């Protein structure tokens, strides 16, 4: 069995055919998925999916790409995370790729999420793009290791991976690792310890080869796992079993 550790089933590209998406998950032996929140306004839709389906779980958080939203408080995130199907805080983090100018608001939002995760005792789902130095710095300053979590859709260097691993975080690979030009990322995937490894789709984005350019879906996480198995010179079954076990361990879910 496989688990998609990060997807967005509430996004319209997938919500329009949710029964079909869930059917394809079953057909491809993807037994669970984590539906990740990106705004508080859409969080109720994410939570509803988790409430309606035993094999779906939810997170609560506000993505760093959205500058003009009401900022969550740590207390608000902690309260929302009390729901038994909410297993993580995020996705949160820093993104200096799409936004420019004074991004102190983004850093403060990230700090709030780390503090909430520590208080709620729920792991963090961290997004970082063109901001790895500040991401790791804030993680250290705010004691993110006390909450733990995952660096989702990892695309950074091995040095960044080492920094996250030193804080007790997991590293999750998406369909990007299957792209032919992702040579540095493939090298990172070879080196991540088996007990800190996760796989994801980040669907509806970043479809893996052989579906690159199409709308992604959780069923296709198997192609990510196949690539990681090839890179680590392990069997697909071993990668599937270990990433699934890692998912349930990290997010404290009883199987």
The first-to-last residue Cα distance is 12 Å
Query: What gyration radius follows from the Cα positions, in whole Å?
Result: 17 Å
Number of strands: 8
Q: What is the CATH class?
A: Alpha Beta
Mean pLDDT: 97
Order of helices and strands: EHHEHEHEHEHEHEHEHH
Major β-sheet annotation: 8 strands, parallel
Assign the CATH topology.
TIM Barrel
Helix content: 40-55%
Strand order of the largest sheet: 1-2-3-4-5-6-7-8
Number of domains: 1
Please characterize this protein's 3D structure.
The structure is a single chain. The chain is built from ten helices and eight strands. The chain is of the alpha/beta class and 255 residues long. It has one domain: TIM Barrel. An eight-stranded parallel β-sheet has the order 1-2-3-4-5-6-7-8. The protein is globular and about 40 Å long. The chain starts with a strand and ends in a 5-residue tail after the last helix. The model has no long low-confidence stretch (mean pLDDT 97).
Q: How is this structure best summarized?
A:
With 255 residues, the protein is an alpha/beta fold.
Helices, strands, pairings?
Layout: E1 2-7, H1 12-15, H2 18-27, E2 30-35, H3 43-52, E3 56-60, H4 74-80, E4 86-95, H5 104-120, E5 124-129, H6 132-141, E6 149-151, H7 158-166, E7 170-173, H8 183-191, E8 197-199, H9 221-232, H10 236-250
Parallel strand pairs: 1-2, 2-3, 3-4, 4-5, 5-6, 6-7, 7-8
Q: Characteristics of this structure?
A:
TIM Barrel, 8-stranded parallel β-sheet, 10 helices, globular
């Amino acid at each position: 069995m496989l688990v998609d550790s990060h997807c967005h089933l509430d996004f319209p590209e997938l919500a329009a055919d949710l029964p079909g998406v869930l059917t394809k998950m079953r057909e491809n032996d993807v037994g669970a998925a984590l539906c990740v929140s990106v705004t508080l306004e859409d969080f109720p839709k994410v939570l509803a999916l988790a409430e309606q389906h035993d094999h779906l779980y939810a997170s609560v958080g506000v993505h760093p790409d959205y500058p003009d939203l009401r900022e969550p408080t740590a207390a608000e995130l902690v309260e929302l995370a009390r729901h038994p199907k909410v297993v993580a805080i995020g996705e949160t983090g820093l993104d200096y790729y799409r936004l420019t100018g004074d991004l102190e608001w983004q850093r403060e939002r990230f700090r709030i999420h780390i503090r909430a995760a520590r208080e709620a005792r729920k792991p963090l789902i961290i997004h970082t793009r063109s901001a790895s130095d500040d991401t790791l710095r804030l993680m250290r300053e705010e004691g993110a290791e006390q909450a733990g979590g995952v660096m989702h859709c990892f695309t950074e260097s091995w040095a960044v991976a080492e920094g996250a691993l030193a804080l007790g975080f997991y590293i999750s690979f998406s369909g990007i690792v299957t792209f032919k030009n992702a040579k540095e990322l493939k090298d990172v995937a070879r080196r991540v310890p088996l007990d800190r490894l996760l796989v994801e789709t980040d669907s509806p984005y970043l479809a893996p080869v052989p579906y690159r350019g199409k709308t992604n879906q959780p069923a296709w996480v198997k192609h990510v796992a196949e690539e990681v198995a090839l890179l680590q010179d392990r069997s697909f079954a071993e990668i599937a079993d270990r990433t699934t076990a890692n998912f349930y361990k990290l997010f404290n879910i009883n199987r």
